Amino acid sequence: MAGCPVEIDIPKFIREIRDGDFRAAIATIKETNNLPAVCGRVCPQETQCQAPCTLGKKYEPVAIGRLERFAADWELAQGVQIPPVGPPTGFRVAVIGSGPAGLTCAADLRRLGHEVTLFEALHEAGGVLMYGIPEFRLPKRIVQAEIENLRKMGVAIELNVVIGRTLTVDDLFADGYHAVFVGTGAGLPKFLGVPGENLIGIYSANEFLTRVNLMRAYLFPEYDTPVRVGKRVAVVGGGNVAMDSARTARRLGAERVMILYRRTEAEMPARIEEVHHAKEEGVEFHLLVNPVRFVGEEGRVVGVECIRMDLGEPEESGRRRPVPVPGSGYVLPVDTVIIAIGNDPHPLVPRTTPGLEVARHGTIVADEDGSTSRVGVFAGGDIVTGAATVISAMGAGKRAARAIHRHLSQGGHNS
Ligand code: FAD
Ligand code: SF4
What we know:
single chain, alpha/beta, five-stranded parallel beta sheet, globular, binds flavin-adenine dinucleotide, binds iron/sulfur cluster
C-alpha cells in the first residue's frame, strides 16, 4: 500500500479476489482509484505498488497490477455500476483537460453534487490515454467506457474548445462558473535543437502517436491523416514514449526500428517491461549514442549523424552524465525519425490567466491540494508536476476535487 500513490487497500482486494468476491474487490479498489482498468495496465508497478512486496526480494513480486486489471475488466464485462450523484449544490465547476487528472476531478466533483463541464481542446476526450498510449497497451474501448460513465453521471463534455483561445479562464468565471480545475498536461514536445530537425520525415513522438492513435493514420486514405514510416526508423530517447513510438513504428511495417539513447540500458527511464517487449518485437537498441545533425535530400530526412558517448561523473539526478567521444561521428541512414526526449507543460492556460503563478519550466505552481495563486483556480497532473504518471495525475485530480468542494462549501469564490 505504501508504494501505491492512491493507497489502495491492496491486501483487502487481493483477499476478496481469492474468495471469489470480485464485486467486493472492485469496490475496494474504486474507493481510491477511479480508473483501475487503466492503472492495472499502465502503472509502473515495479517501482510503485510491487516494489515493496516481500516476495519480490527473493522471487517475483505479487502481480498486483494484473490482479487490479482482472477485477476492473471483470466489472466492465458485467456492466459498470454508475456511482450515485449527490443532491445539486448549485455550484458550477469548469474542468479544463480530459486526461486522467481532469477525468478524476470531474467524476469526484459530480459525485458531490456539483454541476461539472469538462472542456477538451481535441475532438476526443481522454488526454494521453487516447492520443498517446497506443491501443496495444491500453485498448481505447476501456477509456471510452470511462468517459461514457462520466456522461451518464451528468458531466457535460465540451470537445474542440481550446481554453486560452476559444475561451479564457476569466471568460469561464464571467459565464458563471464558481471554480476552475486546470489539468492540461504536458503535451508540448521538446526537441534536440540540432541542425536539420525541420526536415520532412522527422516527427515529435506526440505528433507521430497522435496521428496514429487519434487520427487513425494507419487507415489513410479512408481517414484524412497520413503518416510516413518507411523502412528504417530512428527513435531518439529512452523513456516509455520512445518505446511506444518504436513499437508503433514496427506495427506500421518498418523493417528496422532503432532506439538511439545517449546512456546505457541501466539508466533508461522506460519501464523494464516496455524495454523487454520492444526487444521481443525486434526493436534495436543503439546505446551510448547521440544525434548531432540530421542529413536531408530534397527536404526529406535520409540520415542521422550520431556521435558515440561515454558515461562520466554522476549529475544531480544521480545518473552518470553522458560525455561525447571526440571523432566518433557516423551517419545512420533512415527514412523517418521520431523525437521522444520529453514534453514540457502546455503553456496556453498559464499564459492567458492573469495572476496564475508559473514556475521556471512552465509548470503551474500549486499546493498539494491543487490550490494555485489565483483564488478559485485549482490545478493538478502533469501541468503541475511536469510529465509524470497516470496514477499521480489521478491522485492530483482527486485531491483537487476535495479542495474545490471545501472551497465552494465554505462560500469561496474567484477573484
Ligand atoms: P494529459 O493526459 O496530458 O491530458 C491533458 C488534456 O488537456 C489533453 O487531452 C489536452 O488535449 C488537454 N488540453 C491541453 N491544453 C488545453 C487547453 N488549452 N484547453 C483545453 N484542453 C486542453 N504514464 C504511466 O503511468 N504509464 C505509462 O505507461 C505511460 N505511458 C505514456 C506514454 C505516452 C506516449 C505518453 C505521452 C505518456 C505516458 N505516460 C504514462 C504519462 C501519462 O500519460 C501522463 O502523466 C498523464 O496522462 C498526465 O495526465 P494529465 O491529466 O495531467 O494530462
Ligand atoms: Fe499499483 Fe497503480 Fe494499482 Fe496503485 S493504482 S495498486 S500503483 S497498479
